[in-house]
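Hi support team,

I've been running sequence recovery on a batch of backbones for a student project. Most finish fine, but this one hangs at about 90% for roughly twenty minutes before it completes. I'm not sure whether the input is malformed or the queue is just slow. I've pasted the structure tokens below so you can try to reproduce it. Let me know if you need the job ID as well.

Thanks,
M.K.
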């Protein structure tokens, strides 16, 4: 759930809408204009900065989210996590999905606020989390993995130098390992879950695997609910069907069945709407 500040993401979004913006009257043109305004503000344009503040104070959700980002990172205002959270909330209350995710991450990490997994799950749109399991998640290294896990990863041609997660998904004290398995040219690497079934170590992640490894003990919201002895998992960075207007309606949910996790389709959570 690592994220990139607006100064980078706004450029990517500009490229995304640039072709559509050529059509007169197309909403994409207005959107790109605002993204460029935010970029100029972050590069030190005082007039653009004043305009972003004016728009945010008038309730423009994109400007509110951008202003929250600036307070969080201190681009052209002093760093102030309380102010950042306030502006993110304003944007989220208007349905800005990026602002919801940012707030969720702040509560998950305890960044500028008291760490609160339940509040994080609320903003991510996930069901009730297991505070005990999430709190007990630990970082580990490839060199410290049990021999059976190393042998399985060798067979899978999965060798990682990343810090790994060790998390108890059964409550039995036997950890499941989240391992960064395949480096991607851009963004987070693909990952797998390795756990013990009986006396044998097996891959437990769905066949499609994890979309990305976001760092040890990050990116997986372990839930209170269980299926077949394993806690369900909510993934804020993956979408559960359906997707409406190119936006994620609800995060993906994994449930354990027939020896591994499977993605299940869920209705959109009220918190995600």
């Amino acid at each position: 759930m690592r994220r990139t500040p607006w100064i980078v993401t706004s450029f990517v979004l500009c490229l995304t809408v640039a072709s559509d913006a050529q059509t007169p009257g197309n909403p994409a043109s207005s959107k790109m204009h605002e993204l460029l305004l935010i970029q100029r503000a972050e590069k030190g344009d005082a007039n653009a900065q004043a305009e972003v503040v004016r728009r945010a104070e008038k309730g423009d959700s994109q400007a509110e989210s951008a202003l929250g980002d600036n307070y969080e990172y201190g681009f052209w205002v002093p760093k102030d996590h309380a102010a950042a959270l306030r502006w993110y909330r304003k944007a989220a209350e208007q349905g800005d999905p990026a602002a919801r995710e940012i707030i969720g991450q702040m509560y998950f990490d305890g960044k500028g606020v008291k760490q609160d997994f339940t509040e994080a799950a609320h903003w991510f749109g996930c069901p009730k989390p297991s505070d005990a399991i999430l709190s007990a998640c630990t970082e580990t290294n490839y060199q410290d993995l049990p021999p059976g896990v190393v042998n399985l990863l060798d067979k899978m041609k999965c060798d990682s130098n990343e810090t790994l997660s060790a998390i108890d998904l059964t409550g039995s004290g036997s950890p499941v390992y989240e391992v960064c398995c395949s480096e991607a040219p851009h963004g987070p690497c693909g990952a797998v879950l390795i756990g013990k079934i009986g006396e044998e170590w097996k891959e437990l992640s769905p066949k499609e695997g994890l979309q990305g490894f976001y760092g040890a003990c990050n990116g997986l919201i372990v839930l209170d609910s269980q299926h077949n002895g394993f806690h369900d998992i909510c993934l804020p960075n993956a979408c559960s069907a359906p997707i409406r207007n190119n936006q994620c309606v609800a995060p993906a949910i994994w449930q354990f069945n027939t020896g591994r996790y499977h993605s299940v389709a869920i209705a959109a959570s009220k918190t995600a709407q």
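--
Follow-up from support: It reproduced on our side and the slowdown came from queue contention, not your input. Strands lie at 138-140, 164-167, 176-182, 190-197, 200-203, 221-227, 230-244, 247-257, 260-264. No action needed from you.
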